[in-house]
Amino acid sequence: MSYGIGILGAGVMGSDHARILASQVAGAHLVAVFDPDRARAEASAGANGARRVHARGIDLIDDPEVEAVLIASPDATHAEFVLACLARGKPVLCEKPLAASAAECLQLIEAETKLGRRLIQVGFMRRFDPFYGDLRAGLEQGGLGPVLLAHCVHRVATVPGYFQADMSITNAAVHEFDILRWLLGQEIAAVQVMRSRRKSTATLRDPLMIVLETDQGVVADVEAYMSAAYGYDIRTEVVCEEGTAELARPQPAAFRRNGSVAAAYPADWRGRFADAYRLQLQGWVNGVRSGVPAGASAWDGYLATIIADAALKSLNEGGRVAIPAATRPALYR
Ligand SMILES: NC(=O)c1ccc[n+]([C@@H]2O[C@H](COP(=O)([O-])OP(=O)(O)OC[C@H]3O[C@@H](n4cnc5c(N)ncnc54)[C@H](O)[C@@H]3O)[C@@H](O)[C@H]2O)c1
Ligand SMILES: O[C@H]1[C@H](O)[C@@H](O)[C@H](O)[C@@H](O)[C@H]1O
């Protein structure tokens, strides 16, 4: 049996998820699309075999042929859509961030906990990226000794028009917060944002240096640079007592000429994380079908958001901001 999926949002990510679902994922098919920009919804539905385009998001969630929902609409719309899915008992893959505020994340956790089963997966797709998978497996194998430090680089060539200053943290750096928790198996206990000199052409507060401390004393720095111009560049290196572990990256073709070598960078995340998006969707579909959830939970989404809130507080008010330890509800253990 093939599972019926509905997608909310047919912009950059919604249309990419629809394409991947229709062409590269087994056990599910696209049933319906909603986007207030109807032409976009129709283009994505038409290209990917969906039966219909809905006039409202809630109609898509109510569609009896839609058995599970993928949310790829703007960040501020996520919480309401996730709640509606939970109210109808429909599994949901929600793009990051889970919600626009920690209070909204908690509301979703409360609703899911009341249901007593996990229906929410958050789109922290790096957890499915083979290169991050290898890095984590290598760290778990041991041999490098205890972790001391981590360095993360998050460079984006340019940001879309809707991108606002806080989104360097709430929309971009949240990936680093989540992947550090996942890689190290530690919780973030404090954060401090250092402002470098602002890039002269930047409209955002760009770049930022974010320093995180874990509950086991590891320090990690995250460079968040949203106007890096040359391409999309994501790096991670973990420094341990007996050696280091560095994230490998897909190797593009190299061109040697006139005493130099050049290799193309992906323009954005869709190229760099193509495998991760595909594996994430397949993992979600498998989880929905088997009832065994995969990927980041609502709890992981909540923790990424509270770290982001603390980072924003540090950016705006200065200083180190402690993040109180939170008690994980039994559903997420
Ligand atoms: N996981 C990742 O790597 C990744 C990458 C990029 C974006 N995202 C996330 O995906 C989401 C979408 O980002 P995007 O880059 O595709 O943005 P986008 O602007 O390209 O697309 C968003 C689409 O949502 C539509 N929309 C607006 N209001 C809506 C509503 N109420 N209901 C349904 N659709 C609505 C817009 O018309 C637009 O077509 C965001 O939450 C973003 O954070 C995740
Ligand atoms: O929304 C995007 C997306 O989540 C990418 O994966 C991230 O690298 C970008 O910085 C962010 O703006």
From TrEMBL:
Reported function: Involved in the oxidation of myo-inositol (MI) to 2-keto-myo-inositol (2KMI or 2-inosose).
Boundaries of every Gfo/Idh/MocA-like oxidoreductase N-terminal domain copy: 5-123
This protein's name: Inositol 2-dehydrogenase
Keyword tRNA processing: no
The family this protein is said to belong to: Belongs to the Gfo/Idh/MocA family.
Keywords, comma-separated and alphabetical: NAD, Oxidoreductase
InterPro entries on file: Gfo-Idh-MocA_inositol_DH, Gfo/Idh/MocA-like_OxRdtase_C, Gfo/Idh/MocA-like_OxRdtase_N, MI/DCI_dehydrogenase, NAD(P)-bd_dom_sf
Top-level taxon: Bacteria
Residue intervals of the Gfo/Idh/MocA-like oxidoreductase C-terminal domain: 139-322
Reaction it catalyzes: myo-inositol + NAD(+) = scyllo-inosose + NADH + H(+)
EC number: 1.1.1.18
Assembly: Homotetramer.
